Amino acid sequence: MSENPIFERAQRFLSALRHCQVLSMSVHAADSQSLTLRLPYSTHIIGDPETGVIHGGAITTLMDTTCGISIVCVLPEFEICPTLDLRIDYMHPAEPNKDVYGVAECYRVTPNIIFTRGYAYQDDPQQPIAHVVGTFMRMGKGTQGGKELKRDIQGGAA
Question: Tell me, what's the pLDDT at 2?
Fold first, then answer.
């Protein structure tokens, strides 16, 4: 039995997403309040070869994933919740050769929509690279299309 079942569930969710595996993302922290994912710096995600700055698409992927997986921190059971809307305000470019962390929380859960917000940072959470808000549609526990993902995340039969 894990000492932090939310961390374990977030890690299983993340490991089921192939694009996150390719980007080597990992769960840095997770609890009932928020989720933090880590995107390690890599030459594969450089957007500007002259400066070594990370491509904005990698930051977008990090933040969409962080907001989406933060849902497992607040829902008692797994549900498929696709992204409805995601807004990212970039504050400044990520510095080369440094990992990026994405932090997200669910600040409102309704029967149909989940509202999230968060930020990306490198060394100092007080100096964010970007701010994000996202909304996710609740499709319910019994969604047919999510049975395989649910099985992978919960570690058993769907």
Answer: 56
Question: 152: closest CA among 20, 40, 17, 53?
Answer: 17
- pLDDT tens per residue across span 110-156: 999 999 999 999 999 999 999 999 999 999 875 444 455 455 545 55
pTM of the model: 0.86
Q: Where are the beta strands (DSSP E) in 40-153?
A: 46-48, 53-54, 83-90, 100-109, 113-121, 130-137
Predicted local confidence at residue 158, as pLDDT: 44
Q: How far apart are CA 116 and CA 1, in angstroms?
A: 29
Q: What angle do CA 77, 78, 80 make, to 5 degrees?
A: 140
Question: Is 52 in contact with 128 (CB distance < 8 Å)?
Answer: no
Cα-based distances in Å from 46 to 18, 22, 39, 118, 123: 19, 14, 12, 23, 19
- Burial of 103 by CB count in 10 Å (0-12 exposed, 13-18 middle, 19+ buried)? buried
Does the domain at 5-154 match CATH 3.40.50.300? Answer given as no
Segments making up each domain of the chain, as ranges: 5-154
